[in-house]
Amino acid sequence: MRRPLGVLAGLVTVAALGAPLGTAQAATTSEAACRVNVAKPRLGSKAQKITSFAVRRGCFGPALLRIRIKRAVPGRDPVVKSGATRNGRITLKINCRPGTYYAFATDYRGHTVKSKAAKLTCDPGDDATPTPSTPPPSSGGVGTAVENEVVKLTNAERAKGGCGPLEHDPKLRAAAVGHSSDMAEQNKMAHKLPGRPDLRQRIEAAGLTGFRAWGENVAWGQPSAASVVRAWMNSSGHRANIMNCRYNLIGVGAKKDGQGRIYWTQDFVTK
């Protein structure tokens, strides 16, 4: 039987928790962690395209991120291609022409970076591996397939609103899985379970410290990643957590109870 929307809305309404930044000082400290990284131009596997990308991480709120690929020549270096986004990550590709290239990225908020130069001959063996100063956020390699699907769908929703992608953190994921397991064991959906620690204590117990803001979404009974993310996005409290551009890490836990029903936890932090 399909779960009535009224019941789902009721469950979702009581299941959003957030801890906003308490002071301007905390916001200033967090903004200091904002950085822009850009990859050195490289050749694609078939040597037909030169590729570079830029990513913006650890920042409060969306901003215009622009990347330019330049070709080093005597005199003023021309811009071969330029692009911009508010989604936190952008990739540029250009047709290969032998020469020396570098990339330049900025978010117009004081974060500007230039990549190392790459001399490319359009030979597939030339510098085929990207070398960004910091790896881009990834939702793979941490958690189960269904948990990573929640991360993927959550980041897709954030991109629509101009927020950067969340990185699936193994420690934060451990906190989320532990809470989902506790909810399944007690057959109860709540942020604070009897005899169990609260959200901040759970995150710290998992080994994640130094975070400045945190939040949580929980749910029960949705059979898939798509259905639980859709339910959260249809609730103002949960949607606010998902669309909070200040968060940069996520942990997702999904555990079944004895009857096969899934208890979902989605934890967020700013670090």
Automatic annotation (TrEMBL):
It comes from the Bacteria. The keyword Signal applies. Residues 152-268 form the SCP domain. Keywords: Signal. The keyword Nuclease does not apply. CDD domains: CAP_bacterial. Residues 1-26 form the signal peptide. Residues 121-144, 177-196 are annotated as: Disordered. This is CAP domain-containing protein.
